[in-house]
Design brief:
The complex is a heterotrimer. Chain A has helices at about 1-25, 40-65, 70-100, 110-130, 135-165, 170-175, 180-230. By secondary structure, chain A is an all-alpha fold. The relative contact order of chain A is 0.14. Chain B is an all-alpha fold. Chain C has ten helices and no strands. The radius of gyration of chain C is 18 Å and the shape is globular. Chain C is mostly helical. Classes of the chains: A mainly alpha, B mainly alpha, C mainly alpha. Chains in contact: A-B, A-C. The interface between A and B is medium-sized, with 39 and 28 residues.
Chain lengths: ~240, ~45, ~220
Amino acid sequence: MKRLGITVAAAALIFFAGYAALFIAPDESTMHAIQRVFYVHLPLWMVMYSALTVAFIANIAWLATRQIKWDWLGVSAVEVGVVACTGGLATGVLWGKPAWGIWWTWDARLTTAFLLWLLYIAYLLLRGLLEDPERRATLSAIFGIFAFLDAPLVYASNRLWRTQHPAPVIFGGDNSGLNPTMGKVLVICILAMLPVMILLLVDRYRLERMRHEVEELRLAVEARAADSNPAVTRSTA
Amino acid sequence: MKNFNFLFAAWMVVWAVFFVYEFSIASRLARLQEEIERLKQQLRER
Amino acid sequence: MSTTRSAAILLAKELRLEFRTRELLTGTVIFVLVVIVLFSFAFDPTAADSRRYGPGLLWIAFLFAGSLMLHPSFAREQANQTLDALRMAPISAFAILLGKMLANFIFLAIAEIVLVPVFAVLYNVPLTGVAGRLALVLGLGTLGLVITGTVFSAVSAHARMRELLLPLLLLPILAPLLIAAVEATASLFAEQPALDRTWLTFLGGFDIVFLTASWLLCDFLLEE
């Protein structure tokens, strides 16, 4: 029931946000329609950074408490973060071409985003290649912590490097002096994206928890089978 | 509106990404739910 | 037993083990040589071009070689489960990690000492006057590579597809190190060589951050 309520609220917010982004927000003078992608582009980055921060905290919590639920939260948050990052990169590319004539440039923000995408995909890959659940949780938590610590270093090094090798200035213009109507529409869009992301996070967490439950049930069934017939050889799960 | 086709493409991409992800989670959830019911049934029988 | 003493003993063991066959060292040196030669086909190595692209190529070659060379660090321990024996000894987990990090550092350093002069000759890059400062940059950069690489060798040792996984995990993390090392090296290859202090500090900072993280997480890294 609660879930239905949240879904309906999310749908309403999305509808309103979409309307606001397309019709209420003023037209931007140089880029016109494509600038409106900003209203979904920026919230996606905010979601990504929040999700990766949640993952970092979950990684530390797993190592500190050994409660498997933190591992579930960790992987869910990373996946949501990667999804948001993919969306951010895609919208960024589709914004760049019409607005500045180039699909991509290696400025600090874009490079950091791309590298974070690669880092956290590596995290997911690592998990896929580790089988024992406890070891998988521990080792991926360690990698996750290293990745999160690396993120500001990636940004700083690229920023420093770019001041020495300047690239076309792209994001300088937008946020300086944001039109108040644009600001309000942006807030609405962020508020609309939040429940969507929380829903994804919660569902993914439930998926991990269910996987765990299935494993436990399987072991229980096997244990029951072995008890009732001691001669039966156990097959490996 | 100028540049509308790119805006539309961006909008579609974002929705596609969300929906594919949510759909993959939802279908896996459904399958696991079935598996859980099946295993619980097995435990009840024995 | 103190951490430093146990690390030193483990370092001696690693060195003795490697110098018996020297296969890892030889393999690494030859691999980097091959990469250096291949790079010469990718662009025309005039003196000016070499100054521009040389640092980048050199560091990419070392990164690739490093990530291949670091893999056996913990993978070796799996054959006879020698890591369990190490864990049972009265030494801290950090000592085990430190011993391996130092050993890997020495191996890579040896490879670099051999390869940098070769590179300088093949690409006409003058090293006179900057050798000391170059050694500092190489040292700090290699240290960062070895610190993260040894940790990730332990992480990937338990996974499938270990040989491919290690570079996949390591190279993105090392991106800031690559930028800093390349820029610092480039400042030394320039017409008027002057060591860039900012990038040098950045390298030092990178090393400190990840060494600290390794120290904090080492128990979890090496647990059963």
